[in-house]
Amino acid sequence: xxxxxxxxxxxxxxxxxxxxxxxxxxxxxxxxxxxxxxAWPALAWYGMAAAVALxxxxxxxxxxxxxxxxxxxxxEIACAAAETKLSSLAVLPLAFALYAVxxxxxxxxxxxxxxxxxxxxxxGVAINHATAPDGWRGGSDVLAVLSPLPAxxxxxxxxxxxxxxxxxxxxxxxxxxxxxxxxxxxxxxxERTRIARDxxxxxxxxxxxxxxxxxxxxxxxxxxxxxxxEGVDAMASAGRQxxxxxxxxxxxxxxxxxxTAPRTPAPQLADLPGLVEKAEQAGTPxxxxxxxxxxxxxxxxxxxxxxxxxECLANAxxxxxxxxxxxRIGTNADEIRVEAECGPPPPDHRPRPGAGVGLTGLNxxxxxxxxxxxxxxxxxxxxxxxxxxxTTAPSGGKPLAAS
Length: 403
Description:
alpha+beta
């Protein structure tokens, strides 16, 4: 029997249905030429009915089987009554219809259809005996022709069982994949919680202690020189800002998006003068060169630029104390360019190696915006960080530099 799954290579379902119809009917028409030419009209009528039924066998398998069986029984009874002989290969369309019943119908309804088909066959033989003359009444020959047909039904059941097993295996694989993803997400959440706990226990505690000491020194500011009072104020302000940002970061790591912690707006380009003022109070001169419309850039771009200058100022204090830091932001039709350059360190300064974590974080931040970052020394001994961001968002959205 032909398995519908073997016809998947055909260009379209209609082509597969046409191939099934031809395979089911052609043998009967070929054999009829040597059997009884006078039965051609009856075979043609039966062939049209069987072709229509086989074309819809997948969608309505029970109706296709019933139509094919009734058409075959009526044709056989009519031919026997007219004393003409129909080709025994006319049962092939019934085999294809039975295969469709087994493959596309639930088991209980499929068994009922098989039993019903047997009942219709018995009734047809009884009608044949009542209407046909002697010598044209079916008996054991009918049983011999129809006995292989349940095998087609069994093949259909096997195909359905295999299809259900594959679907079940795919569902199990999908469930296993979802379970694996959930385990990965759970492990990531647990790791974020652990990091947040460690940061809270170590960094946040130290920052809070720093602010407390600064406030204590501020309370005794009358005993300090003016330059020391300014430094204490700057230290207390920086500690409070770092503590606020740390709390928001801890909220994000714990999955609360900072909802349980006091929230402050993320730094923007408008906050750069304050950052520069604090750096100058700490002994690092800085100069800003920003085009006027820069404050209309999207907040993620402004925050990335702010962090770039913040990192450059921190590195300048560590590696080149007293060197001037120049910060520029420019734009053109294609990209936004952010550049920070630090002057050379003093001749007697001994550089301290860094871990490079800050630059790695900056690189990841700008990469998330679709840009890139380069950093390295310049000819005069200084250091330059340059980042570019496309003026069109990575997702193809509206321009980043739209004012």
